[in-house]
Structures are given as structure tokens and as C-alpha cells.
From TrEMBL:
InterPro entries: ATP-NAD_kinase_N, Diacylglycerol_kinase_cat_dom, Lipid_Phosphate_FormReg, NAD/diacylglycerol_kinase_sf, YegS/DAGK_C. Residues 1-144 form the DAGKc domain. Coiled coil: none annotated. It holds the Pfam family DAGK_cat. It comes from Vagococcus bubulae. This is DAGKc domain-containing protein. Its cofactor is Mg(2+). Belongs to the diacylglycerol/lipid kinase family. GO terms for molecular function: ATP binding; kinase activity. GO terms for biological process: phospholipid biosynthetic process. Keywords: ATP-binding, Kinase, Lipid biosynthesis, Lipid metabolism, Nucleotide-binding, Phospholipid biosynthesis, Phospholipid metabolism, Transferase. The keyword Lipid biosynthesis applies. Gene3D superfamilies: 2.60.200.40, Probable inorganic polyphosphate/atp-NAD kinase, domain 1.
Length: 317
């Protein structure tokens, strides 16, 4: 690690300003430890990709065992910022990425075991000797053939509605300032859960095809967490090549309330209202317009036909 130069890509706005505060802390510690670094502040959404494109011109190189490795890209931001960077490096899976989580939900950090305390996360990062492969989902829009890499989850229905409500709520900023960023998803859930209509859905795995007439929640996940720490599938892992799909059908409000209580105690997987599919490849079709989300970023309201598989990339973790 001695000769490594850190290239910090920082979203100061992540976590409603937590990114800026945590960057100051990281800067202080790197100076104290005499670790060389350069900083690239994002100035607008999508700027991440331009910064990465510039760094690809001679700074960032693939990691090779037994070869000197001198320049490490480190993302300081939330899941959305990391999502952009991972996708900017979609064709460079052997260029490692380090991560210092500073968002509201930080589900990827939870899923892969990176501390959400910035000083601990920095200590973890600086202790790494070589990168490790982590599985990501690859989601392809079958109609447009657009493919994007997914760190956490892709949802259609209620979880996408919750993401949209949280992203546009004033409570998110307030809760982030109170260091309760995850609660912004809880408050968004309470305001949208009973308004979500049911929708038809078709699931195709390598062994079966199943149709749901009244789906309500549909989340394809890479690791256990969504919505700022809710373990939607406690058995999922970013260290296997399985994709986990959870579907809940529209049920009576009382049954739904009971399912939510079970969810918080991680007892929900046995519910008869919940369907779970685990496979290395699957396709989801929602033939009517619905809201969608990918890693907490809104996909808008439309029909979806999405094909999922997994792929691995190197992370400095
Ligand atoms: N300077 C910027 N100004 C506005 N938006 C930015 C800027 N830099 C990055 N973004 C965008 O902000 C979006 C949200 O960022 P991010 O997800 O990192 O933070 P968050 O929403 O607070 O965290 P989380 O996803 O963990 O809840 C991303 O789509 C990212 O591209």
C-alpha cells in the first residue's frame, strides 16, 4: 500500500451534505498519515462518468497480481454515486474501486461489509493488500438492449415508489442532518405503502415461468439489504453468483402490516404471501406502466422487460 496514490471521487452532496463533512475528515486523516491523494469533486449528477473517463486516460490501470499497482480510485458518496462509477467502468472490471460510504442508505456498504463509520471505513481501505471480486447484477432492458450494472437492487412497484418519495421528500435532508438518513425510507414507506396499486408480472427463471396477477412488491437483489438496511432477503450474498427475487402480492392491509413486522424480525421469508426465486439468470416482465428503481435511482414509470445475470468486478475491500 506504500506507493499507492488515492484518487478520491467525492460527491459532497451525498447524504444531504454528509459527503462534504466526511471528505474533510478523510482529508485530515490522509494528510496526517502522509498518504498521497488527489480529489475530484462532482459538480452535478453524472459528472462521475466524465471524471472516470479522464482518469482512464493514463491514470487508472487494471490490477495484475505481482505487478506494481500505483493509482487507486476511491469513491466517497452514496450508492447512487458508486452506481455511476461502476457503470462508467463497466468494461474495466479489473480496475479496482475503493469505497467510503457517505450516503443516506448505504446499502452496498452493509451488503459487502464496509463500515458505515467513515474513520473505520478508511482504516479498512488502507489495510487492503489486494482487491477482491464481488458479484454485481447485470440488468438488460430487453427492448432497448441497454445494460447497466447493479450494486444493490432493481425494484418495480412499491419499493420504487418509496425511493421516489424519499428522493423528493424534505424529510430526507432533515433526517440526514440528524444522522438518521435510513429513516427517510421508513417515512417514505409509510406515506406510499397503502397507495400502491397491484400490477401483473411474469417471472422466467432457468427452470420455470410464473405469472402473478396482483404483484405489489418486486425486488431483484444482489445482497440482503434495500431501503437503508431492511434485509429483504437475508440469505442473499454479493459473494455468490445468485440473484434473489422477492415478490409480494397485494394483500389485505392487516396481513401487510403483519408481513412488515415479520420483515423487521427477518421472519418474512416463510410468509405464504411472499414468493422467492434464486437463480443465476432470470427475466422479469411487467406489461403495464409501473414505477421502477435501480440502486435508488428512479427509472420512471413504464412497462419493464428486464433480463438479469451476474458479473464480477474487483473492489479494493
Ligand atoms: N455535485 C452533485 N450535485 C448533485 N447531484 C450529484 C452530484 N454528484 C453526484 N450527484 C448525483 O446524486 C445522486 C445521489 O447520490 P448518492 O446516491 O451518492 O447519495 P444519496 O442519495 O444521499 O445516498 P443513498 O443512495 O445511499 O441514499 C447520484 O445519482 C449522483 O450521480
Amino acid at each position: 500500500m506504500e506507493k499507492l496514490v488515492l484518487h478520491l471521487l467525492v460527491n459532497q452532496h451525498a447524504g444531504s451534505g454528509k459527503g462534504a463533512r466526511q471528505y474533510k475528515e478523510v482529508q485530515k486523516q490522509l494528510i496526517a498519515k502522509e498518504i498521497p491523494f488527489q480529489t475530484y469533486l462532482t459538480e452535478y449528477a453524472g459528472h462521475e462518468r466524465e471524471i472516470v473517463q479522464e482518469l482512464l486516460k493514463g491514470v487508472l490501470t487494471p490490477y495484475k497480481d505481482n505487478k506494481p499497482f500505483e493509482h487507486l480510485l476511491v469513491v466517497l458518496g452514496g450508492d447512487g454515486t458508486l452506481h455511476e462509477v461502476v457503470n462508467a467502468l463497466k468494461h474495466e472490471p479489473t480496475i479496482p474501486i475503493g469505497y467510503l460510504p457517505s450516503g443516506s442508505g448505504n446499502d452496498f456498504a452493509r451488503g459487502v461489509g464496509v463500515s458505515r463509520k467513515i474513520d473505520v471505513a478508511l482504516t479498512q481501505l488502507l489495510a487492503v493488500q489486494k482487491p477482491k471480486p464481488i458479484s454485481l447484477m447485470e440488468a438488460t432492458d430487453v427492448d432497448s438492449n441497454d445494460t447497466r450494472l447493479i450494486l444493490n437492487n432493481v425494484g418495480v412497484g412499491i419499493d420504487a415508489k418509496i425511493v421516489a418519495t424519499a428522493n423528493h421528500s424534505k424529510a430526507k435532508s432533515l433526517l440526514n442532518q440528524m444522522k438518521l438518513g435510513s429513516l427517510s425510507y421508513v417515512s417514505a414507506a409509510l406515506s406510499s405503502i397503502f397507495k400502491q396499486p397491484s400490477f401483473p408480472l411474469i417471472v422466467e427463471t432457468s427452470t420455470e415461468k410464473k405469472e402473478f396477477k396482483k404483484a405489489f412488491l418486486c425486488t431483484t437483489t444482489n445482497h440482503p439489504y434495500f431501503g437503508g438496511g431492511v434485509a429483504i432477503d437475508p440469505t442473499a450474498s454479493a459473494y455468490t453468483e445468485d440473484i434473489h427475487l422477492i415478490i409480494v402480492e397485494k394483500i389485505f392491509p392487516l396481513s401487510l402490516a403483519w408481513l412488515i413486522i415479520k420483515l423487521f424480525f427477518k421472519q418474512h421469508l416463510t410468509s405464504p404471501h411472499l414468493h422467492r426465486f434464486v437463480d443465476s439468470e432470470l427475466t422479469l416482465t411487467c406489461p403495464v406502466a409501473q414505477v421502477g428503481q435501480a440502486d435508488g435511482e428512479e427509472l420512471g414509470e413504464r412497462n419493464f422487460k428486464l433480463r438479469f445475470k451476474t458479473t464480477q468486478r474487483l473492489f479494493w475491500m
